[in-house]
Amino acid sequence: MPNLVADFEAYRARMNQRILSEDHQAVKRFFGVDTLTYQDGALDRKTKEMLGLVSSLVLRCDDCVRYHILECRRLGVTVPEFFDIFSVGLVVGGSIVIPHMRRAVEFLDEVIAGETRNTV
Amino acid sequence: MPNLVADFEAYRARMNQRILSEDHQAVKRFFGVDTLTYQDGALDRKTKEMLGLVSSLVLRCDDCVRYHILECRRLGVTVPEFFDIFSVGLVVGGSIVIPHMRRAVEFLDEVIAGETRNTV
Amino acid sequence: MPNLVADFEAYRARMNQRILSEDHQAVKRFFGVDTLTYQDGALDRKTKEMLGLVSSLVLRCDDCVRYHILECRRLGVTVPEFFDIFSVGLVVGGSIVIPHMRRAVEFLDEVIAGETRNTV
Amino acid sequence: MPNLVADFEAYRARMNQRILSEDHQAVKRFFGVDTLTYQDGALDRKTKEMLGLVSSLVLRCDDCVRYHILECRRLGVTVPEFFDIFSVGLVVGGSIVIPHMRRAVEFLDEVIAGETRNTV
Amino acid sequence: MPNLVADFEAYRARMNQRILSEDHQAVKRFFGVDTLTYQDGALDRKTKEMLGLVSSLVLRCDDCVRYHILECRRLGVTVPEFFDIFSVGLVVGGSIVIPHMRRAVEFLDEVIAGETRNTV
Amino acid sequence: MPNLVADFEAYRARMNQRILSEDHQAVKRFFGVDTLTYQDGALDRKTKEMLGLVSSLVLRCDDCVRYHILECRRLGVTVPEFFDIFSVGLVVGGSIVIPHMRRAVEFLDEVIAGETRNTV
User: To probe the interface with F, which of C33, C37, C43, C51 has the most F CB atoms within 10 Å?
Assistant: First the structure.
C-alpha cells in the first residue's frame, strides 16, 4: 500500500493549487523559476534532479527529498546511485541527516515497490 | 594574481595538518570518510563533486564551496555547468545564497585565469 | 472541524505549562523576553508579529509559523498581506520553504474558516 | 503506554538495519565514526552525550534529540541537568528551539515514566 | 570614511553584473523575482524590506543584512525601529545572532554617519 | 602576536557597549538571560560552556566559537577535551564544520600561546 507516496503527491498537488489560486505574482513567478531550473541545460535534467535531492537532504527538508526522489526515479536513478547521493549528503551535513535519510530510504523503497506492482 | 586560490589552499593545508597532528581518532576517521565519499562509485567522481558543491552552496559554507570548485574544475566541469549548479543552489536555498554565489563566481574566475596563465 | 488549530493550541499550552513548572530560571526568563519582544514599541505589535512570522518561515519552524499566524490574524493581518509575507520568506529562503508554506496556508485557511463559523 | 519511546526505537532500529544492509562503504564507515565519537575519551561518555544532545537541539533534529535523551538518561543525567542542557540550547538557538524543547520534555517524561513502571 | 558601505556596494554591483553577464535564464529570472518581491503590494515596500531584513538576520547572512539595512534606511526606517527588528531577530534566532547584530549596528552607524556628512 | 584574540575581544566589547547603549529593553534582557544561562546550576559552568561551544560550532558561528573557547579555557578545558568537543561537532554537523574547526584550532593555539608568554 504506497500510502507515503500517494499521500505526499495528493497533499502537494492540492496545496500547490490552493497557493497558486491566490494569484500572487511573486509567488507564481517563484514557482515558475523553480520549474525552469531543472530543465535540460549544460547539465541534463537527471543530474540537476540529483543536485536538487542532495541539496534538500542537507537542508533536511523531508518533503523536498520526497519530491526529488520521485523525479530522480522517473529519470532512471538506480538504488546504488541514490545511496551515493545520500552518502554525500551524510558526510556534508553530518549525523543530523541520518533521520532524514531513514525516511528517504523508506520512501524510496515504497516508490520501487509500487513500480514492481505496476509492472507485474 | 591568484591570491584567493593560493591563500585558500595554503591555509587549508596548514590547518588540516595541524588538526590531524593531534591524532584524535574520531576526527581522523571523519576526514577518512570524507575522502572516501567522493571516490568513483555508482556515480563517478565528477558527479559526486558537483553534489558536494551544491550542498556546500545551499549550506552557505564559502570554504567548502571553494574546495569543491577546485575539485570540479580539475575534473572538467565547464563554466555553463557551474552556473547550472549555482542555479539549483539558488532556487533551493533562496536569495541568501546570492552573496555566496558572488564569492563563488569570483573564485571560479580566478581559478580559470590561473589556468590560462599556466597554459600560455 | 478546526483540528489543526485546536490541537496546536492545546499541545502548546500543556507543554509550556509543563516546562515552566520546572521553575528553571534561565528558561523562565527566556520565555519572558520572548513575550516582551512582541509588545508595542517603535514598531507596533502587528508589524512585530509579521516579522516573527517571516523569521519562523525562513527558519522552517512549522509550530512557530502557526503561532505567529494566529497572533497576526488576531491583529488584523489580511490574506493578501499573509501572502506578501510568505513571498518574502519564499524568495529569501528558497524552494525548501515551499512545504512549510503549504502547511502555513492550510493552517491559515482553517483559522479563517473558524472565524466564519464563530461569526455566523 | 510509552509509545513515543517504543515507536522511535523500533523505527530507528528497522531503518538503520535497512540502510546498513545496502553495504555502502562510505555510509557504513560514517555510522562507525558516529559510534566511535561518543566513546570515553578525554571527556567521558556522559559529557559527550550531553554535547550531542545540545547540538541536536540547536540544529532542531527531533529524532536526534530523542536518541541522545535516551543515551543521556542511561548514563544518569538527571531532570535538572536536562533542563540546564535545554536552557543552553534555548539561548543559543532562540525561540525556534521551543517547539523542539516541548517535544523533548514530553519524550523525557515518557522515558522517566517507563523507568518507574519497570522499577515497581 | 564609509568604507564598509562603499566597499559593500561596489563589490555587490560588480559581481551581480558579472553573474548576469553569463545570461543564465534561471539565474536571471531568480534575480527578477527577487526584485519583484519587494515592490509595493498588500504590504508597502518599507514593511517588506523590514521583513527581508529580519529574515536575513535570523539566517545570519551579513551581506543580505547590509543590503536590507540600506533599503530600509532609504525608506525611512529609524534607529529605534531597526532595534525593534534586531530584537525580534535576536529572540527568534538566539545568541548566535549577536555577532551578526554587532556587524549590522556597525554598518547602520556608518550609513547614518554618511547621511549627516551629505547633509551638512 | 595574539591578534586574533585581542582583535576579537576589542571588537566584541566595543560593539556590545554600543548595542547596550541603545537601552532597548528586550535586547538588554536577552543579554541578561544569555549571561544567566552559563552560571553554575545542576551542571557546572565549565560543562555549560562546553555545551555552548559545541552548539556554536554546529551552528557555524565563528565569533560564538571564539567566545566559548576563551571561556572554556579560563575554566580549565584542556586541548584533548577541546578536540573531543570538536569531534562531536564534526560528526553531528558534518564536513561543513571543518572550515570552522580550522579557525577554532587556530584561535585556540593562539590563546594557549598567549598563556605561555604570560607565564614566562
Answer: C33
Per-residue confidence (pLDDT) for residue F2, from 0 to 100: 56
Residues of F in contact with D63 (CB under 8 A): none
Distant-in-sequence, close-in-space partners of A31: CB < 8 Å, separation ≥ 6 = A16, A20
Name residue E74's amino acid: R
What is the predicted ipTM?
0.96
At E7, the pLDDT band (50, 70, 90 cuts) reads: very high
Band of pLDDT at residue D32, cut at 50, 70 and 90: very high
Q: Which helix (H) or strand (E) holds C38?
A: none
Element (H, E) at F97: none
C-alpha F57/C-alpha C23 separation (Å) is 29
Residues of chain B contacting F80 with CB distance shorter than 8 Å: 24
Tell me: the pLDDT tens digits for D69-118? 999 999 999 999 999 999 999 999 999 999 999 999 999 999 999 998 87
- pLDDT band (50, 70, 90) for residue B32: very high
Q: Which of C83, C102, C103 sits opposite A24 (nearest CB)?
A: C83
Task: Indicate the pTM of the whole model.
Answer: 0.97
- Neighbouring chains of B at 3+ CB pairs within 8 Å? A, C, D, E, F
CB F50 within 8 A of CB F77: yes
| Binary contact (E79, F24; C-beta < 8 A) | no
Question: Hey, are the CB atoms on C26 and D90 less than 8 Å from each other?
Answer: yes
The contacts of residue E17 (CB under 8 Å, 6+ apart) are none
Whose cell is 565519537? That residue is D37
